[in-house]
User: Fold Mg/Co/Ni transporter MgtE (Contains CBS domain) from Actinopolyspora mzabensis.
Amino acid sequence: MSGLVVFGPDGQSIGKVRDVVAGLRRDRHPPRVLGIVVEVATHRRIFVPMLRVTGIESNAVLLSTGSVNMRRFHQRPNEVLVLGQLLDARVTLLPSGRSAVLVDAALEQQRNREWQLGKVAVQVRSGPLGRKGPIQVLAWDQVAGPATAQLTEQPQEVNELLSVLDEMRAVDVASALHDLPEKRRYEVAEALDDERLADVVEELPEEDQKDLVAHLDEDRVADLLEAMNPDDAADLLAELTEPDKERLLNLMAPEESEPVKRLLAYSADTAGGLMTSEPVVLAPDATVAEALARVRNVELPVALASMVFVCRPPSETPTGPYLGCVHIQRLLREPPSNLVAGAVDTDLASLPSGAKLAEITRYFAAYNLVCGPVLDDQEHLLGAVTVDDVLDHLLPENWREGGLPDAGTPDFEPDTDGEHA
Assistant:
């Protein structure tokens, strides 16, 4: 069900399924499915009761008419997230007593229209290397556990949950981590590789970022900062105390920490504080083919790929004298063998490093840009500001937590029946 599109009664897409909420029981009866967690367009996660679900198909979940609470979902103490917490939980097979890992669960609708987790898929892991046995599908009463205490206290594997998160964009993984219980959030963060975790951390709210930094080992945090974009790493370090900041900068490789230190020297609300120090920079004798090859890099953010900057050596920021920029539309119209120097736009205004947010916003609006150069007083390129960095500072502080207006949200009435907070 993870990632299935959720449609309202009028056929309008509401969002995507991100988890299923169930209530564990003290007896051996299967857990009752309480509802689904749906991620709407603003990345806010809301709770939709199972009574609103009229059908679960291979490619969609269908809802009936009725009120749905559009406030952010908050997990209650007696609830468990099937994807976020049940997956990878340790269970005991009955009557053999063998230990196994829960790798999936099946939702079944009963005659009274209630849903429950009637069956589970489990896999025995044996030996010191955790050799995997065949997957078995069993009824819920054929396994013992998991209990709520186990899910909130004992360590769990993360293999199955990571396989689900691996198919999601970094911003969606960040939203999922934000909503996971603290213990589970740490387990997932520790299991992600540096590059993937860096992409996710860049999308987390500031408080979640600082929380992860406080939990992870300092050497791992230094590796994480090295994998992040320099401007995002600088933003994160700026939120820490001076001793912590200096200690982490010293743990980073010098070639990785230097651009971050330069960015930290600027105020956060200026072009220098907003810019990235790693735009696409080419020498004037580079060919159009070389420029197109650079902007085709799949790891390059879309905004930075919109233009290349032409400078005399050195090409690392701060560069030699800045000559101008070439827009990607112009590159696509030029013969590949031509030099970029012949396509340079020398008329586009640049931003001084001290430009304030209001000035930067007017600049982007006036020139219809998604990326703009930042120069020092000697006309050397220091970096580039992208529109996403501008928006990040214009939006409310809690926008990553779903703190946006619900413009464009499907027309559901607020839920006032108290089914879920």
Summary: The mean pLDDT is 89.
